[in-house]
Amino acid sequence: MNSPRSFWSLAKLTWVEIPRQPALLLLTTTLILFIGCLPFLITHNLGEPGKLVRDSSLALMFLGSLLLAVPSACHAVSSEIRGGTAGAILSKPVGRLRFLAAKCTGVSMVMFSFSGMAIIAILLADRAAARDFQVGWRFLIPLYLAVLGAYAIAGAINYLTRRPFVSTAYWCMALFLIIAFAYTLTLTGGEEISIEVPVRWDILPAGALLTMAALMIQSLALLCAFRLAVVSSLVVCSGVFLTGLLSDYLLAARATEELWARLLYMVLPNWQHFWMADALTAGGSVPWSYVAQAAGYAGAWILGVLLIALGCFDRMEIR
After folding, report:
1. Confidence class of residue 192 from pLDDT cuts 50, 70 and 90?
2. Which residues are CB-contacts of 77 (< 8 A; sequence separation ≥ 6)?
3. Which tens digits make up the pLDDT trace of 213-235?
4. Domain spans, the chain
């Protein structure tokens, strides 16, 4: 079996199988719709229109990445090990390194699609919150229609062709959200309302940083998936997530005095490097040069975790 061909076949198989899980579609739909409702639920602006909506939307994307990455990674690895699929694949000329890399690539592709949909929803919600309800609803109706249309089309396709409803709805929603966002780029405040509502493109680098954090969580979930079930993996990843958020407060001062604190501070991911919502306040922006630096940090951390995962995988007996 050709090495590149087997790698991409495994990655594509993972990319196709994960969106067939109902939990993925339910979580993604809930997140998109809740972000779309935030401009109507949050009426305070704290001196800057859209700030609370933007910050809350980015926080939902951050939390949603954790809730999505863990079951996706566990389904990609642990379910195949328990079901014997992994043993059948490894019995062919497919090494464990290639198997792990393909699984990581497949899950990453799903995480990229999830992050892309979340960022589109955040851009629309931020644009809607920048003005009052009389103007903002024009940018959210296409979002709602994209979700409803995806479910309707997926239902029709499932009825006519028996294709899986869940994965079809997921990918239709991704496509329709792109179309909805492209349509809203042609909208202003309306012919009778001479108000220009620009797109806050500065959200893109902030969303890119959260996507990197999602890939870091995903790599940790892959490591846990070799030994733990979904619930146990979620507990471990949530613990690392919360500890990483508080690492500056808990370990920064002690790291200068005690060796254990210094080592733990270096190993734990510092999520504050990826949470740049405050930098967008008052028209601020996140430089793409900073995104590139954060990408180096995230890549090094992911590589280290995957190397540990490979070591654990090599010592596992696969039947």
Report:
1. very low
2. 86, 103, 222, 225, 226
3. 999 999 999 888 888 888 888 89
4. 3-314
CB 219 within 8 A of CB 66: no
One-letter identity of residue 36: G
Overall pTM surpassing 0.70 (yes/no): yes
Q: What is the pLDDT of residues 87-139, one digit of tens each?
A: 666 666 667 788 888 888 989 999 999 999 999 999 999 888 876 655 567 78
Output the CA–CA distances (angstroms, integers) from residue 164 to 141, 148, 239, in the order listed.
27, 17, 35
| 88 phi and psi angles, rounded to 5 deg | -65, -40
Cα–Cα distance list, 228 to 72, 74, 76, 199, 222 (Å) = 14, 8, 13, 43, 10
In this structure, what token pair is assigned to residue 134?
Answer: 């009389």
Question: Is residue 90 classed exposed, middle or buried when 0-12, 13-18 and 19+ CB atoms within 10 A define those classes?
Answer: middle
